[in-house]
Amino acid sequence: MASMVPYDRYARALRNWPFDEIDRFFDAPFAALSTGNAGFKMNVEDAGDRYVVTAELPGVTRDQIDVELNEGRLSVSVEKKESDEEKGKNYLYKESGEWSATRGVYLKDAAVSGLSAKLEGGILTVNVPKQVEKANVTKVSID
After folding, report:
1. How many C-beta atoms surround the C-beta of residue 44 within 10 A?
2. d(CA 89, CA 2)
3. Within a 10 A sphere around the Cβ of 50, how many other Cβ atoms?
4. Which stretches are transmembrane (predicted)?
């Protein structure tokens, strides 16, 4: 039973067998640019006085998520690991497993204080208040 291979994976492997590795080699530099390999979907909304960032994280617990704001860059990192209960099972076919992903967005006027995050129904919602922009230009009088 352990040597069983689902038909769709076996057929897919044989379909492009001689050229699959060549295609993967030439696609590798562009893999980071595609949105399909992002790991999870994330939306950023400008809600006037704050930013609302939502991330779709089904099956992930609070302990597996790390949210960090560092000099205007909001990073959401997820590291999902299998539990000991799942490791003891004898799966014939399994698509879920251990994975990690990090997504980030730069919010130029994000305030450090007043951040809040909530995980509900597989959706992480992070509220980032905006700070009043400070003038970076100082006029100097000439004597």
Report:
1. 15
2. 12
3. 19
4. none
pLDDT tens by residue, 2-57: 555 555 555 566 665 566 666 666 665 555 444 444 579 999 999 999 999 999 99
Sorted by where each begins, the domain ranges of the chain are 39-129
Give CA–CA dist 4/66, Å, rounded: 37
Give me the helix-helix angle, 17-27 and 7-15, nearest 10°: 80
pTM over 0.70? The answer is no
Pick the CATH number of 39-129 from 3.30.1360.20, 2.40.10.240, 3.30.70.100, 2.60.40.790: 2.60.40.790
